[in-house]
């Protein structure tokens, strides 16, 4: 709980989720199983639930709740906010394509959030891909115009291509949810303040995915404070969906 930085109640709820999912992913535990073996199974068990926890709405009621939530920010008919965030990684032996425009090896992550700051969609690519390229190659980019209710849109910044009736370039506080979501996520999971040091990109991606899942659980279980204490993150974090250096949340 100390390293996960959550309350005991939240930890027990997360443990219950893993326990419920375990039989669908792994065989029953045996007395001969070592602690290392069991620990190695936890990530794959946890990651079997993102389709249930990280997903776009499937009902009109869910979409409507998001639309009403975004009206608070003064933007009508918005059904989500999209942004990008760089996640620094150690330089691989084969580093071609991993260097971002900031000059370091990184993942570029695209994420879509709702008004509650929950992640509804994410896509991870190497740092050399810009936001527009990532959007065009992501599943979300291919299907969002089919999923959003008629006349609705997703909010993004100038790094994304404008799609009439579905995608709008906006500035100011209407994009606050995606900026706040990245800020909360990086503040909660502080390993993302420095380079990820896992040996394989797949291991790094698994860590990122698990943290996004836990982020949503923390919101569902009300384990985030009402007010976010902003921190001055390193300059490389400020791309797309990250916190501006001076921003006040009212």
From TrEMBL:
Residues 1-21 form the signal peptide. Keywords: Hydrolase, Metal-binding, Nuclease, Nucleus, Signal. Pfam families: DDE_Tnp_4 (PF13359). Its cofactor is a divalent metal cation. It is found in: Nucleus. Residues 93-216 form the DDE Tnp4 domain. Belongs to the HARBI1 family. This is DDE Tnp4 domain-containing protein. It comes from Achlya hypogyna. The lineage of its organism: Eukaryota, Sar, Stramenopiles, Oomycota, Saprolegniomycetes.
């Amino acid at each position: 709980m100390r390293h996960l930085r959550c309350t005991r109640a939240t930890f027990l709820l997360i443990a219950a989720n893993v326990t419920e999912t375990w039989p669908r992913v792994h065989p029953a535990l045996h007395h001969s199983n070592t602690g290392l073996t069991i620990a190695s199974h936890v990530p794959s068990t946890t990651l079997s639930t993102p389709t249930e926890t990280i997903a776009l709405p499937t009902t009109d009621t869910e979409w409507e709740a998001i639309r009403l939530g975004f009206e608070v920010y003064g933007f009508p008919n918005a059904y989500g906010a999209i942004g990008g965030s760089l996640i620094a990684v150690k330089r691989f032996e084969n580093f071609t394509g991993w260097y971002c425009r900031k000059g370091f090896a990184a993942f570029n992550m695209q994420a879509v959030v709702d008004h509650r700051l929950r992640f509804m969609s994410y896509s991870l690519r190497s740092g050399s891909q810009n936001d527009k390229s990532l959007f065009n190659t992501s599943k979300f980019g291919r299907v969002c115009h089919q999923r959003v209710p008629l006349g609705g849109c997703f909010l993004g910044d100038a790094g994304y291509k404008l799609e009439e009736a579905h995608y709008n370039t906006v500035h100011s506080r209407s994009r606050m949810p995606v900026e706040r979501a990245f800020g909360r996520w990086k503040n909660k999971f502080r390993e993302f303040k420095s380079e990820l040091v896992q040996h394989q990109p797949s291991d790094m991606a698994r860590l990122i995915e698990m943290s996004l899942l836990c982020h949503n659980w923390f919101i569902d279980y009300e384990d985030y404070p009402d007010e976010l204490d902003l921190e001055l993150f390193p300059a490389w974090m400020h791309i797309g969906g990250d916190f501006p250096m001076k921003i006040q949340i009212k």
